[in-house]
Every structure is written in structure tokens, then in C-alpha cells.
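ASSEMBLY PREDICTION REQUEST
Request ID: AP-0331
Submitted by: J.K., bench scientist
Number of chains: three
Total residues: 1146
Priority: normal
Notes: Please return the full assembly, not individual chains.
Input sequences:
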Amino acid sequence: MLGENELSDLVLDSQEILDKAEAILIQLEKSLSESAIDADKVNSLFRYFHTLKGNAGFFNFNVIVNLSHSAESLLEIVRNDNSLLDQKMIQLFMEARDTLYEIFSHLNENKTDTMYKEKADTLIPRLFYIKENLKAESSEPKKEEPRFGIFKKKIVLSDAPIVEEDNKELPASNKTTPTPENSDTDKPEKPFVDKIIQESPALEKKTQTTETNNGNPNGQTTVKKDIRIETDKLDYLLDMIGELVIAESLVTQNPDIKELDLPNFSIQSSYLRKVVRNLQEVSLQLRMITLEGLFNKMERLVRDLAQKTGKKVSLQVTGKETEIDKNALEILTDPLVHIIRNCIDHGLETGKERFAKGKAESGHIKIEAMHSGNEVWIIISDDGAGLDRDRILKKAMARGLIKEGEDENLKDERIWDFIFQPGFSTSDKVTDISGRGVGLDIVRRNIAKINGDVEIKTKKDQGASFILKLPLTIAIIEGMVVIYNGVFYIIPTIDVKETLNLAESKIDYIDQDKKVIRFREQLIPVVSVERLLNHDSSDKDSTYEKSLYVIIVEYKNNSLAIVFDGIVGNQSVVIKPIPDYLKGTKGFSGCTILGSGNIGMILDIRFFINNYYKENKESEAAHGQ
Amino acid sequence: MATTFEEEQLEESEDTMEDLYIIFFIDGREYGIEIRYLIEIIAFQPVTFVPNLPEYVKGVINLRGKIIPVIDVRLRFGLPKIDYTEFTCILIMNFNNLSAGLIVDGVKEVLKIPKDCIEPSPGFEEANMERFVDSIGKSGDTLKILIDLNKFIHEKDVKGIA
Amino acid sequence: MDNNKKIKVFIVDDQRVVRNVIRKMITTDPRIEVVGEASNPFEASELIPEKEPDVLTLDVEMPRMDGVEFLRKLMPQYPIPVIMVSSTTEEGSEKAILAMQYGAVDFVTKPDGGAITLESTQAELIQKIKTASTINIDRWLKQLKYKSLPLINNPMAGKSGKSKYNLVAIGASTGGVTAIRQVLSTVPRDFPCIVITQHMPPGFTATFAKGVSKDFGLDVREAKDQDIIQTGRIYVAPGDFHLVVNKRNGINHTVGLTRAEKVNGHRPSVDVLFHSIVDNKLAIETIGVILTGMGMDGAKGLLAMREAGSRTIGESEQSALIYGMPKVAYEIGGVEEQLPLSQMVNKIKNYLNYSGQYV
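STATUS: Completed
Returned structure:
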């Protein structure tokens, strides 16, 4: 009777609960060393395991039921006496939670949890054992005392009973309830509703409340109304809106009417454009979600790694409520993980080393997120050893990435760049945490995928900061539409440095193969798109006589001048992914449909520049001239 | 577990698509591909060239807002190129969530070829085409060469794509 | 109730998984349709008047407003038969039983990975929904209103005189929680032994016994095998066990528990208790009582008791939440006298030759 739909609902809901449980466990663990343990948190935790058990019970998933039950039973005792909570217990709860999480992540395929029985059996007796010991120690179980948390009742003079566990704003007994003006206007059909509201003045009608305190300075919990939507449906909606934007252009910029003078039409189509753009902005907002989930995972990671390496780490996280595009979030996970691993494994020194350097024993890591102009910045900083310039240089030379003698003039940014090379690692030992330094090139790659950038700031022995700069949205870019050889291309505006008219600027030849153009004291290599895509392209030897323009693009101080036959103009362009079939071709970061109905390929300028300079290092010497 | 209503619908429709093939012409020969991959057939329309692709991938087209890569089947078979005529069509296929258009000389019909009328291929001389052939279907007196769409799309060429 | 119309059910539970499962379970019966759902009492309070359901299923343990609290607010304003859905924890069972006092007509338990399976819950819930849809809820609530808050028993309320009756046997099902409580609320401490078989799941019976014990200051306990039948003791059959009377062991009879097969679909079964009284020749010193409930469990047993010499009382239609079991018992001749609950204890005291004030 219970089918796949019910199962997948169970999995989704349970995973959500387990995520919340993890966040609470981490907070509880932190608060162990500090003052009071938050009784509400313990209660929530109890409730989570209880709910997990109850829901899984419908499906006869006995391993889940038993494991949740053993955690719940222990928590039942702890919630009556919070002081019983200790590190060992938290660790055990964590393990139980992790096991449950693992079970749920495979539940849709496995359709059963029996294969985890053994694993659960290593945890259940331990939980049971602690519980039994505590029960034996504690005195007579308290009978009449009100339980904390969930059903906390305040004596209120009116008949208002309800207490919100999260809403600390609850009416105290002397708060006045609103005057019975409501009762006169009571609609006969809904007396019940009004009555409830009347008697619970501080409570708004909520469809769902989130438990987080949304960074509200007064510490009041703001209530977000939310609703569950399948992400597939949302993605489809957003795709359709993207289509609508294009369709609007296809109509309003249609070649058929281009020559016609249609004043009324122009006015109305402007209106249409405005409406569509608004809709697009709203849809872009829909794609935004907060970094909270991701940061919570990072907190867990830091905690685990700190334990594993035996280093003391204090973590500060700010900006959880910062929002980014949903798709960007998925791509960010691996890079963040690798940066943090690197940080704890290589960046932070051991307690002894830190002591010797006069630092506090605990290494300090800070994860921040913030909006900066049109971008979102995520900064991971530590107060560890920082990047060692000399070591990196040595390693780079050893791997042939730079030649002898080149190193003196290299700017710091260039040197830090090396650590993003695949397989690069200056660590003598390979730990299983960060492997062979293979991780950081994922950072570069993934961030590039979403048109973002990575910057490093570091000072030896003081620490390092990784600054990830991400565009607010990855669905639209500003671009320059150009033509070469009958094909439309789009160059992201932020990569464009200058546009030159070939009637005025001349292309010079260094030698037969290399063409350059003089621009502001520099000689910049001149190429065509086809040449960039394919070194053996037919226009390799071309003099580019037909081309009228050269667009100078720049990335990290490297420039190229790309020839084009024509420039159409600047516009916002909806990024459509490259069709799967063509995924193998490098050099395009997407494509789009222009107003005329033509298809334009979006050029991955950074890829071209990096590629070109990797192979043509001699051109760096040209900069000196 | 009893199937849901939607699952039953799907099963039904897949059943009725079984054994159906779309039959098209290439260089005078008749070929067939299973119809369940066919999304639609459109008249030939100008293709936007995309540089740096294998010769047989002519480029992409804009199909109502969706960008679809287009393969010239003749070229993929290693046959000489011809001018497109009024009969030239593009078969829009969807295979494992991957969309592609196939340029064919012309479309003949939709034909049911039951499994017992299908035989293994005897082998063709043209190596380029041979590797895409799945089997031969008999229909009345005629033979149709049935193409393995998976191989057709994915098999690497000298300058492979995927 | 029009037999052709579907029973309209509204589901309240904070867990989406549970709402989905309940919906799936009960709509397998063609007579039941789900007209609405809510994940919290606020939503429910808006939707219920809109959808006008016939029966409500209500989760006992919701995080924001307790199911029982919601029930308390709901009943006076929108009387509707409510079936509580509870887990088998102590807290859950306490609340479920408390809910009965506030007007809920019955409860079901969620599958617990053990004896309570998805299928058993499904069958139970469907049956209880159907039963609930026949209840005149206004009348029931009116009756409840006149049932006072639990009194601590007045030890001076009558002294038992000499009588030949040493045992009172009570059987009940749906609605029994409230009915039994009402009966016991006026029972003095030195009453003859009372044995009770109430259809209830395991765990709940212990909670129920504890609750009654606490509220009325009586010695009410979940029966254990070999417990002695003696004055002042009240035994409740544990869920999933049959309660029986054993052969005389020396001077006293004891109660026993068996795991024999379900009878009339129930374990504990009232028939089993009643028959064991007859088999052990105790009928002549026993007063048999059958209270509210669906079905016919206990009817034949009560008849057997009456024929073997017991005094027998059946709850009248006037006071019974479900006039099912008492009806069958009456119709086959097993009930000597039909009485509303309020008069029952007095009648029993009469048989017991009670002196002193009748409460």
C-alpha cells in the first residue's frame, strides 16, 4: 500500500529532520563547555528522534525505529535533567544520527534498512547501557513536575493555553488580550478561528514556522511562511521564464517589424518588456537560497577534522543568511570542503607549534559570507602558518611550472595561483585528509564554472584567507554580441577591456605566426575565435583583413585581442547550457538565443586566456617591452 | 506494490510504441530507428554553424527556444555531401535526456516491424555505416536497416565529441 | 447517516509522512474520503469549518499546540467525533486517554514496529472512523459536561455491608475510558474486587490504570498473573492479554493472563473474562456489567453469567457512547437491567447492601 511516493516523502522529511538534529548537536556540544545547556534544544532533539521513529514505524523499518528509539529513550532521561548531558553522549548521538542519515540516503534504492542492522547494533547497546546506568542512579522519577519545553504551560488568566516553544514573546499573564471588538464582527461561519486568535494575541496564524532566529537583532524569531515545492517543478518554472524572456525578444525585436514605424506597438512592447523583466527578477529571487545549510555542514566538517587531527579549532561563522543562486550552492560545496581541509590540515599548526610562535593554542577559523556590489563573497580565513612563498616556488620549479630565473619578478598573486594546479602540494606528508593536494584545483574549476573568482591573501605565520567571489546569479550575464565568420558570439562584459576599430589601430607582426596590436604601451597577441578553439584552424595564417574590430579581453593581467567582423551590441543574455551532445567542446560556457532568433555561443574568455598563455609563455616577455 | 495510475499509463504507452520504427531515406536506402526516441519531425531549417565540431555535426538550431545540435546522417555514414532538397527533414530525437536532430534525405513512414521479422545484420562494406547498424528488419518484400541510436550518437569518431 | 454518502474525514498531523500514510490507509475503503488536511491547529481551525468533515483524526503529539489542547478548544465550538492518533509512548498514551475526557471518542496507535502493524492500524482506524461517524457527538459532549472533574474519593461514602458479592466484572470498548472512569469515580475504597476488561492497546492500559488510580485514590493496577482477588483491588486487563479468573488457590481466587487467540477480534476479550467467571463457579458471587462499545464482545459471556446466577447490568442507550455491545447483550437476554451510567454504581451498591450516603 505504501509506494515510492510515500517512501520518497519519508526520506525527504527525515533528512530534513536529521539536518536540524546535526545543527543542534553541534550547538549543544559547544555549549557544554560554556554555561547552561539550552533545555529547548535538548527537547527539540528528543522530538526529532521521536518523530523519526514514529514515521519510520509506518513502513516497518525496524532498524531505523530501534536506533531512533534508543536515542529517544536516552534523551528522555536527559531532558529531565540537562546536566546529565556530556561529550560522550553527544558523540554517540552524532554517530546514531550519521548512521540514520546514511540509511535514509540509500533508502529509495534499497527500499529496506535491514543491511544496516549490524551497524545499528553497535550503537544501540551503548545508548541503552548509558540510559540504564542513569536510570539506576537517578532518584524516583519525577511525576508531577511540568516537563520542560514542548508542553510548557504558563498560568494565564484568560483561557489562552497555547505556548510556542520557540516564540519567547508569549503573552505573560498581565498582557491584555485584544478587546472583544472582534467578537461583534464574528462571521457566523468561522467563530472558531477568531476565538483562537483572540485568545492568543501574540501568535500569528502560521502555516509553518521555521525554528531559526533569522539574524534579527532583537532576538525575536521572525516567522517565515514557507511552502514545499519539488525542485523539479521550480526548475521547470524558471526555465519557462527564461524562455519567456527570449520569446519576448523574438517578438519585439523581430526582423519582420524592424523597419516598420509602429509607435503604439513600440509603447506596448516596452511595457511587455518591463513586465517580463520584472517576472525574470522575481524568478531569479526564487532561485536564491541561504548559505545556512552549506555552512552548517562546514561547521560539522571543522568539528570532525579538528578531532581527527587533534588540533584545537575555534570556528566563527557569519553571514549564514546570505543568499545565493541555488545552482551555485551545489557547485560550491566541494571547493569549500577542500579549502577547509587544507586549512585545518596544512594551514593551522599544532598546539605546540602555535604555542612556540606565541599564538593561542586554539587555531581560529572564520567563515564569512556577504554581499559586495553585484557579487557574493565567501571568505575563509585562518590564523595559521599562511602560504609559504619559497616552498611554493621551489615546488613549482620542481614541477617545471616555472623556469630558473623567472621567479624573482613573479608577483605574489602568481605564486599563490600555483597551489591551484592539479596535484600540487608542498606538504611533505600525505595525509588522508587532504590527499596529495589534489583538492584545490577543484576550487578553481568549480568557481570558474559559475563565473566566479578566487583570491588569496596571506602572510607568513599569520594566516591565510581564501576569498571566493561569486556573481549573484548564474543565469544571466551582461555580454557583448559579436560576429565572426557568420557566427554570433557573446563575450561577457566583465572580461572586455577595450574595443578597437581596425581602421584606426594596426595589426603588427612580430614574426610570421605572431600578430600583435599595440595598446597602451603593451603588445597584445591577436587571434580569432576559431584560432582559439582550434590551433590548426584554417585562418591561422590569415591577416584578418576582413575583420573590422578587435576586442581586447583581459583576465588576471593577461590580455588577448580577438578579431571580429562585426559588433551587434551589449545586452543581457540568458545563459542556456550547452546541449549535452556538445559538452566536449571546450571554450564555450553556454549559449543563448538572440532577439533575432539566431543562436549565439558564449565564449569562455578565461579559459581561452589561460590556455593561450600556458602555451605561449614567451609572450610574457613582450610585456616588458 | 500496486503501480500508481501514472506508472500504468506509462507502461501502456510504451507497450503501444513497441515494434514501431520511423523509416527514412539516406542515399536511396531505407533505414529505421525506434520511434520511442522520436520527438518530432521538422522541415529542414538553416543550421547555425559552431566551430570546432566534427564535420558531421553541422551546428545547432533553435527549436522554439531550445537549442539542439544537428547531425548530418549522410556525413556520419561517411557518404558524400549533397545539397539539401525540399524533402530533407530533421528528425528530433531524445535519447537518455540528450537531444539531437538528424538530417535525413527524406522520411517515408512509421512502420511496425514485429520482433520475429528482425534478423542480425549480414555486415556491410561501408565500415562507417556498419558500426551503427543494429539489425535488419523485414517488412513485406523490403528490408530496412535498423540503426542503433546509442552507437550512432555516442560512438567516437576521429575527432570524437562526447 | 445516509449510507450512500461517503464519510468525510479531516486529518490533522504535523508530519507530512503520517498524513500521507493515514490518507492512503483509510481511502482504501470506498466509504471514506479525505476532505482536508492540516499540519497544525491553526490551519485546522480555519479549514475545518470550511470543509465540514464528519470525523477528525488528530495527532496527540504536535509540537506547537498539543493535540489535547486543541481538542479542548475545538469541542465547545465545533463538536465533531475525534479519533486521536497516538504513539505508544507513555506520554502519548497519557494524552490519548486525557483526550477521551475532553470529548475524543476513541484513539488508534501508530505502528510500533512490533505487534501493531500498518495493517492492524489501518483496519482499526477504518473501523473506528465508521463507528465514530454514527455517534451523536452533541449528546455525548453534553453528557461529558455533567461528568464532574475527578474527585478524590470520599472514604466516608458508605460502608459495605455484608453481601454475597465479592466480585464485579466490567467489560467495555469504545467510550469505555470515560465510562469506566465515571463509574470508578464514585466507587469507595473498600469495594469488592473489580476486574475490568477494556479494549485497549498494550502500554495504554498501564497508563490508564495509573491515571485512574491517581485521580480517584483507588488501587487500580494493570493485572498480573496470580494477582489475588481481594477487596479494594481493581484490576485492568493489560493490552494484548486476556484477563481471566483462575481456579481457587487455597482460600483465594486469583486472576490470570493468557495469550490465547483473539476472541471476537479482541485481546483482551470481555467474553473470555466473563466465561472464565462462569467456568470457575464464581458467577453466583459476581455482578457483571457491560458498558459502551462496538460489536458484541461480552454479550454471550454476560448471558452465560446471568444464567449461572450473576446479577447483570448493561449500559443504556441513553448514556452509552456506542450502544453496541450492551445492545446485543440486552437483546440476547444477558442483561438483567439496563441503566444509564449515573445510576449504575448506586445499583451495584444496592446489591452490595451498602449503608451510608449514596454518592
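REVIEWER COMMENTS: The first helix of chain B runs from residue 5 to 17.
SIGN-OFF: pending second reviewer
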